Amino acid sequence: MQVEDEYSTKSLKKWTYSDIINWTASLIEIGKKGMRQVIEMKGKELTGQMLADLTVSKLQDEYKLGKLSAMKIVEALDKIKKYNPPQTDEDQSSTSMAKNRKESNKEEEEKEEEEDGEEDEDEEEYDEEEDEEDSKKNDSNNFCDIACINKYQGLVGLKNLGNTCYMNSAVQVYVYKNKTKTKTKKKTEWDLR
């Protein structure tokens, strides 16, 4: 566990030649011999990116290592990858995007509630034409169709085409949950599934 903690602060793909040499010293003997052979063949051009791409078959074919030695190296690399920070900026941004989306959804809901509270109750009556448009947008299975999704930026949903639903993205699905009618306004709730 000490090795994993020591090398978990820097992404494997960003390792330098000196990081690789230090890590090689921490391997068990059979792994050390194999890594030394890899280092001798590649020299100073060996990078963390190359380490991240190593597989047992690649070590056996390209570097002529024995199966046990190759397995020990890949096993040690897998441990490092497990405790390593995300390998790319895309991985980091996707996890932070999900958190930001949740926060922004909460903020939007709070703003809508404040705006709804400020509206005058006697302002206008419930519009039946608007209700018909919404019912056209929402199919009988309570899934939001593409036209409905467009007004909610960033939402993803299903479009019902007969008996088959087609996903327009594999990220998440918001399902039309509830519509409450009042004299002055209607409220639509969306549920993340």
TrEMBL record:
Gene3D superfamilies membership: Cysteine proteinases, Transcription Factor, Ets-1
Disordered: annotated span: 83-139
GO biological process: protein deubiquitination
Annotated SAM domain residues: 15-66
Signal peptide bounds: none
One Pfam family, short name: UCH
Domain of life, source organism: Eukaryota
Biased composition (Acidic residues): 106-133
InterPro entries named in the record: Papain-like_cys_pep_sf (IPR038765), Peptidase_C19_UCH (IPR001394), SAM (IPR001660), SAM/pointed_sf (IPR013761), USP_CS (IPR018200)
GO molecular function terms listed in the Swiss-Prot or TrEMBL record: cysteine-type deubiquitinase activity
Listed name of the protein: SAM domain-containing protein
Organism: Reticulomyxa filosa
